[in-house]
Amino acid sequence: MRRLLVLPTSRAGWGLLIAFLTLIAMGTWPMIGWVNRATLVLGLPLIVVWSYLVIFSCVVVMLIGNRIVERDNHE
Amino acid sequence: MNSLWPLLITLIYVAIAMMIGLRARGGQASRANMNSLEEWGVAGRSMGPVTLYLLIAAGSVSAYTFMGAPGWAYSKGVAVFYVAIYLAYLALIAWYFGPKVWQFGAEFGHVTQASAIADRYQSPALGALASLVMAVGSIAYAVLQTVGSAYILFVMSGGIIPVWLGVVLVLASIAVYLYASGQRAIGRTNAFQGVLMLVVAWTVGLWAVHSATGGLSFSAVFERIQSEHAAFLTLPGASGDMSFSFWTTSIIVSMFSFMPPVWTQWMSASSARTIRRSATWLPTYYVVILPMVIVGFIGIYSLPDLARADTVALEYAMQHLPVVLVGLLGAGTLAASMSSSEPFIHSVSLSLSKDVLQPLLKLSNATTGRLARLMILPIMALVIAPLAIAEPGSLVMILLVGLGFASQVLPAFIGMFFWPRASRLGVMAGIVAGFLVTVAFTTLWPHPLGIHAGFWGLIINLPIFVGVSLVTPATQADVVERFFRIAAPRGLTRLGKKAAP
């Protein structure tokens, strides 16, 4: 039992895990350092625009996740 | 302030919230037994996706959004957006874990987080420990929100309602509907408060931009900040204390702080699918933060000498906005603090009754249900009200330590969702070690190397948890099996190979 772990069991599951980890990487260092500039995009600071890009990307990934979970028909 | 309109609008909000809270047990719910843990605690697991969306959203958006966030923008700048990012990540957490927690609750009868921990590790003592220490952070949080509520009433009344009376008024209002309708009241009032906050934040934000720039575009505000105060547009911020490492570790620690009211909210859903649907759209709510933060940025150049940064939105509104909007801002801020404090008060009462007093005094479920409902009164009258009125200076410290502990309970959840070998002693050892490190790095040597104290706690906690788990007895196999039938419906993985569920 000591080596048993819960991990994704399908390609879609692995894809979703990678997408979740990418989202977390997008909002943290080092990626947040790449957008840490005092420039304005659409009238807002770059880091603010990036933050909302991360936030709305979370919605998109979860929408895709819903399709995968409901297609596979399990909770 | 000379006008009575702001106070009137704020009091009308309180009256509406009370009415909604009391009516929450109407209809089908009126026939439900509010003395049962299932009804009072988790609303009979009945909440639909829209109510759940607003319940979680309003619960997570505290008075911080209307006072603290503009204050952070005013004193630090864009560093404040770490909050928006971690709130979105909390939605990812809810999406993955929420449906599983709901299934645990529905199948095994859990109504609190601590009862799930006690069941997984077959240890009422571990459940009670988790309940008691989580209660410290929860009560500190509820007290801070109550202080915020009383402050709003004080300002809106022009000083007529002193802080002590504001504390009594706010807690009495919450007590009436929380006792009567429990989690159903929290669901309905949070739904109302969630919509109100969104409307108020955008109305106040756009009006403030218009009064400051003559237009409705945020760009004029930021162009001025860019030319005069560029440090506010990047990390580490104008005060220089939000390094990349503190930004990153604060997000990670906050993300893994599974606070008990959130579990109760997940378990109140009508189905696992409902939680997933609500969580999916949850990040969209956090557009509520943007307009209030803009008011903080406007304050940088229009109110340069404020003594308290977290009063920037209120000060700006009182100096530049119509009295009706000042009243709406008061109502919105009060909504934010009430919607955040009531789930914590409810959760502490529920968990102390279910996870501490029931096993200790060998109470029946019926007696525990009645006790949980009554327990809100002494918690409010004897703990929250005196602390809120006294406003001890160490309150924020208590909260930080409490939240630091919340993240240290992570091993308990790793053993519940990912690693069947996790043992009771491994979890306890990890929590105690992580908690001690977090306390030391919060109080004695705050955040060494610019890394969040809770993150240091996890660095020590997790290896100890794994090591002690491997050398101490695992939880009995049938218990582990029933948990992992839900946590891993397609089976576990052994070194790259699939094992039987």
Automatic annotation (TrEMBL), chain A:
Q: Which UniProt keywords apply?
A: Membrane, Transmembrane, Transmembrane helix
Whether Transmembrane helix counts among this entry's keywords is yes
Top-level taxon: Bacteria
For this protein, the parts annotated as crossing the membrane are: 12-32, 38-64
Protein name stated in the entry: DUF3311 domain-containing protein
Q: Which organism is it from?
A: Halomonas citrativorans
From TrEMBL, chain B:
GO molecular function terms noted in the UniProt entry: symporter activity
Q: Which reaction does it catalyse?
A: L-proline(in) + Na(+)(in) = L-proline(out) + Na(+)(out)
Enumerate the InterPro entries for this protein.
Na/Glc_symporter_sf, Na/solute_symporter, Sodium:Solute_Symporter
Q: Which organism is it from?
A: Halomonas citrativorans
The text of the family note is:
Belongs to the sodium:solute symporter (SSF) (TC 2.A.21) family.
Where are its TM segments located?
Answer: 6-24, 52-73, 79-98, 125-144, 150-179, 191-209, 244-263, 284-304, 316-336, 371-389, 395-418, 425-445, 451-472
What is the annotated localization of this protein? Cell membrane
PROSITE patterns for the chain: NA_SOLUT_SYMP_3
Gene Ontology cellular component list: plasma membrane
PANTHER family noted in UniProt: SODIUM/PROLINE SYMPORTER-RELATED (PTHR48086), SODIUM_PROLINE SYMPORTER (PTHR48086:SF3)
Pfam families the record matches: SSF
Give the UniProt record's GO annotations in the biological process aspect.
sodium ion transport
Q: What membrane topology does this protein have?
A: Multi-pass membrane protein
Keywords (alphabetical) are: Cell membrane, Ion transport, Membrane, Sodium, Sodium transport, Symport, Transmembrane, Transmembrane helix, Transport
Q: What is this protein called?
A: Acetate permease ActP (Cation/acetate symporter)
